[in-house]
Amino acid sequence: MTTATTITTLSDQQLNSLSALVDGSTRSILSSLPLPSAPRCLEVGAGNGSVATMIGEHLGGQVLAIDLDTTHMRGSPGVEVARHDIRQGVPAGPFDFIHARLVLSQIPARKAVFAGLVEELAPGGWLAIADAGLVGNLLVAPRESDHEVWRRYNDAAYRQLGRTAGHDYGWAERTEVEMFDAGLADIAAEHLVPLARGGGPWAQYHANVSLMLEEELLAGGLCPEVLDRYRAMLADPGFRAHFHSLTYTVGRRPTR
Questions:
Q1: How confident is the model at residue 187 (pLDDT cuts 50, 70, 90)?
Q2: Which UniProt keywords apply (predicted)?
Q3: Domain tally for the chain?
């Protein structure tokens, strides 16, 4: 059974893994935007603070980094860390740049939060949102029976637990439309589908997810044998899959 101490350790690992896996794409998106010098920025769901630090170093402005849990963050030049629940309202702007990664798709109040983010943009300010969509394609299974293991785990973790928690795996691809409807300009989207290899960083990331959700998965009816086989499959060098997509969408608030 996964203990509270193990969960805390896994949370640290997951945040660091996520930074290693996707910060490069985030940096590329950030570098493509014509932001003013020394901008005022908001980082929503800052995690371990890697993106907030990146923004501070790259732009030289002031960054307000918020999250429900700030214990994983360390201070860095130009970054103010604050514990805040974005569902209770967006901090007052105006902000020249707002970034939210893997946040809105996971909260039921996503539309209200999105509207608040748009409202707090300065004229000409940029909003960048990155969210994951569910793909769930098992490309190469070490065993023929692993297709059923894959199906049962995905049903339990995403179609049951995820939906019960209010996750919306279609939000990522709708963000572009939401930005258009909100009146943003210069909207662009980039859609990525990472390939996970057995024993590789994406496979390990998702194996850790299964450890963090173990209690809920078992309580929901997933049998321990399926869970054990799922983890063994992800560690097998022959395993290949597309777990999810990652969509980055950016838009600018018009100056008038």
A1: very high
A2: Methyltransferase, Transferase
A3: 1
Residue of 166, 191, 192 whose CA lies nearest to 176: 191
pTM across the whole model:
0.90
Neighbours of 214 (CB within 10 A): 18
Q: Write out pLDDT tens, residues 9-61.
A: 677 788 888 888 888 888 898 889 999 888 999 999 888 888 899 888 888 88
Look up the domain containing 240 and give its range: 4-252
In our burial notation (b when 16+ CB lie closer than 10 A, e otherwise), range 61-86 reads bbbbbbbeebebbeebebbebeebeb
Backbone angles phi, psi at 14, to 5 degrees: -65, -40
Query: Where residue 120 sits, what CATH number does that domain have?
Result: 3.40.50.150
